[in-house]
Write a structure and sequence with these properties.
The protein is 24% helix and 23% strand. With 362 residues, the protein is an alpha/beta fold. α2 (117-126) crosses α3 and α7 (235-248) packs across α8 (274-286). It starts with a strand and ends in a 5-residue tail after the last strand.
């Protein structure tokens, strides 16, 4: 049960007092040490009156219905609509943030809508959504709000999807992912240099989250890497990353390589060439990844799903529109009977590329 301080502020559990009177937040490996009244780097967790509180509970920076492929999740209920929301703030400091107006917001006015967990679950059901996504900013920082929403969703038969960088401590991670059904984790690079200098975080904590999700939970897992020219696009790094994924997570974890555009504090890099994305995809396939995709560019062939057994086209994709569908009701290739890893319905959804804003105040 969530303990409210006021309408938008709730007490949290993952913190402890220090000898010097400060409180240490134990939600993520940043371990912010806070004087009374001080906020952590995420801005939405604050030391207040002897405990750490979350200050944005029940307030959203955006409510919309998206195609599930936009998260991106290509092997989780393809073609279905997902009810998406986030809050404000983030526990990383990525210089290239593509959603900086939300994740780096220091203004609570960014939180446009008020929506209780129960209201979100009921709205998702009313709109015919199979799942709710905790996205736009990282659900790690709105842990309590996301958890309560996931519980409300599960009671109505609606699945939960986490879109996260995976930068979280073990205890809250275990609590969170017992309520998730799918996750796309942003594996931002495969070097400690990149994580430390570009994101303000550490690679090992993310790798531990990936291994935990894959081996300790039934959560369906996919990965996304934003390819940034001159930062994380070397052949050596992509070789190491994709080999690690196959060896530690398995060949069936899909990988998405997406295009960077100059933004926030990293404007001195050019947009990602399509050739770089295709090269990353080919390296992944060569190293044994069964399902590798490109994103933020139009390439139907590289966006589509192929049988890793016979090579035939299983799911055709044109941006977020599904075309060919060659899976049987059990998720097997209709040509050779090979299993396509994922969570599938007997028939694909037909939501397409639509994005529909939702006004919870109406």
């Amino acid at each position: 049960m969530t303990n409210f301080v006021n309408h938008d502020t709730v007490q949290t559990r993952f913190w402890h007092p220090l000898d010097d009177g400060r409180l240490q937040c134990d939600l993520c490996p940043r371990f912010c040490k806070l004087h009374d009244g001080q906020r952590g780097l995420c801005f939405v967790r604050q030391s207040l009156g002897g405990c750490v509180v979350m200050t944005s509970y029940g307030r959203s920076s955006g409510l919309a219905i998206d195609p599930i492929e936009k998260k991106p999740l290509n092997h989780f209920l393809p073609g279905t609509p997902v009810f998406s929301f986030g809050t404000a703030g983030c526990n990383l400091a990525c210089k290239f943030c593509q959603n900086w107006d939300i994740s780096k917001s220091r203004e609570m006015d960014t939180l446009m809508s008020k929506a209780s967990p129960e209201a979100i679950a009921k709205a998702a059901l009313a709109y015919g959504c199979d799942s709710v996504a905790y996205t736009y900013n990282d659900p790690v920082v709105f842990h309590e709000y996301a958890l309560d929403t996931a519980m409300a969703c599960r009671s109505l038969g609606i699945k939960s999807v986490s879109v996260s960088a995976g930068y979280v401590c073990p205890e809250p991670r275990a609590e969170f992912y017992q309520w998730m059904d799918a996750a796309n984790i942003d594996l931002k690079a495969f070097s400690e240099r990149f994580y430390h200098q570009i994101t303000g975080g550490h690679l090992q904590s993310v790798l531990e989250t990936l291994c935990y999700i894959k081996h300790e939970t039934p959560v369906w897992l996919e990965l996304t890497t934003l390819i940034i020219p001159g930062e994380n696009d070397s052949v050596a790094e992509l070789e190491a990353m994709t080999q690690w994924v196959v060896e530690n997570l398995g060949a069936d974890v899909p990988m998405h390589f997406t295009a960077f555009h100059p933004d926030w504090k990293l404007r001195d890099r050019p947009p990602t060439p399509v050739a770089s994305l295709l090269q990353a995809r080919q390296i992944a396939l060569k190293n044994g990844v069964h399902y590798a995709y490109v994103g933020n560019v139009h390439d139907k062939a590289a966006d589509s799903t192929y049988c890793h057994n016979c090579g035939k086209l299983l799911i055709g994709r044109d941006w977020y529109e599904l075309s060919e569908w060659n899976l049987d009701a059990a998720g097997r290739c209709v040509f050779c009977g090979g299993v396509c890893a994922g969570v599938f319905k007997a028939e694909p959804g037909n939501w397409g590329a639509k994005r529909m804003a939702v006004d919870m105040d109406r």
